[in-house]
Amino acid sequence: MQKVVVSFRLFKEWIEFLKDNGFEVIAWDSSVPPSKEWIKENIKDADGLLCSLVNRIDREIIDAAERLKVISTFSVGFDHIDVNYAKSKKIRIGYTPEVLTDATADLIFALLLAVARRVVEGDKLIRSGRWNQPWTPDFMIGTEVNGKVLGIIGMGRIGRALVKRAKGFNMRVIYNSRTKKEVEAEFVDLDTLLRESDFVVLAVDLNPTTYHMVNRDFLNKMKRSAFLINASRGKVVDEKALTEALQSGTIRGAALDVFEEEPTSLDNPLIKLENVVLTPHIGSATFETRQKMAEVSVKNLIAGVRGEKMVFEL
Ligand code: GLV
Q1: What is the pTM assigned to this prediction?
Q2: Mutate to test the pocket of ligand 1, among 75, 281, 293, 300 (most ligand atoms within 8 A of CB)
Q3: Rounded to an integer, what distance in angstroms lies between the CA atom of residue 265 and that of residue 270?
Q4: How many whole angstroms separate alpha carbon 310 and alpha carbon 69?
Q5: Which pLDDT band, with edges at 50, 70 and 90, does 234 fall under?
Q6: What fold is seen in the domain 3-99+287-306?
Q7: H or E element: which one contains 6?
């Protein structure tokens, strides 16, 4: 019997699906990720691994596997996997792009609108009993989104989905990416993007070139009236530099779905700032999308073990 390891709490019906397909399944069943030792021990004689972004799949784990054919991740991001090393050992990698593009782009727009229009601040104001004045023209003034400049860094699937949504808000869209793309937006260099954008959205993956890409220098180049939106990976942003920029008025605000450390701690000074909207890494978190991610990642796993074509392979 071929054996697969699932190193995060996957929906029960997909565990059953794997068993119905004839696999022996060793599945982790807690929201707290397993230890490295647990993965190493169980991966030893496994044919496939289904992991998520909370499992760091490094050389040590890959070396512990004696007959692993595939690592399938329940995510579009793959910065938690030593991809090159796995590939050098002929281990295939599956991931889940496309199925989460729209959900993630929607969340990015939700964050953008929320921070621009002070939605969360308003909510907190009411709940804390501080809404103690009648309507006035100057109360809770935010920033107009319609007609503004959206600067997208990275132009993959999510970048393109953002362009479509931005058109509905009559935004001018500029972007910067490694290469110029066929897309209804204007390619500009990074400095121009930072100088001209009212909203800067990060739509890049985390890799050595994007690690702490948003640093003090980057933030200083943005407009003082601009907002930063990040639903990519927390480590793309130097949170210390961002906190200082938000405190000193270097930029107007930020909306973050991802953090350098997750879950982020209550000691994170970003949490104290009114001009920041925070969500707990929920970019792809809709019922429909998570079901599709489960389906794709399970099918990738099975195809990888059987030496067949995967739905999405890196
Ligand atoms: C989520 O962050 C993902 O990479 O799918």
Answers
A1: 0.97
A2: 75
A3: 10
A4: 12
A5: very high
A6: Rossmann fold (3.40.50)
A7: strand 3-6
* Overall average pLDDT of the 231-249 stretch: 98
Cβ of 108 less than 6 Å from ligand 1: no
User: pLDDT band for position 233 (50/70/90)?
Assistant: very high
pLDDT of residue 160: 98
Residue located nearest, by CA, to atom 4 of ligand 1: 77
Q: Which of 80, 204, 284, 296 to mutate to test ligand 1, by most ligand atoms within 8 A of the CB atom?
A: 284
- Architecture of the domain delimited by 101-278: 3-Layer(aba) Sandwich (3.40)
Give the separation between CA 98 and CA 156, rounded to whole angstroms. Answer: 10
Phi-psi region of 110 (alpha: psi -120 to 50; beta: other; left: phi over 0): alpha
Q: Averaged over 35-49, what is the pLDDT?
A: 98
- Separation of CA 69 and ligand 1 centre (Å): 22
CB within 8 Å of 75: residues ≥ 6 apart: 52, 53, 95, 96, 293
Q: Is 34 in the pocket of ligand 1 (CB under 6 A)?
A: no
Q: Is the CB of 77 under 6 A from ligand 1?
A: yes
Catalytic residues: 233, 262, 281
Give, using CA atoms, the residue closest to atom 1 of ligand 1.
75
Q: What pLDDT, on the 0 to 100 scale, is given for residue 258?
A: 98
Q: Closest ligand 1 atom to the C-alpha of 293?
A: 5
The SS3 of residue 15 is helix
| Identical topology for domains 3-99+287-306 and 101-278 | yes
Residue-range domain boundaries for the chain: 3-99+287-306, 101-278
104 Cβ below 6 A of ligand 1: no
pLDDT confidence bin for 81, thresholds 50/70/90? very high
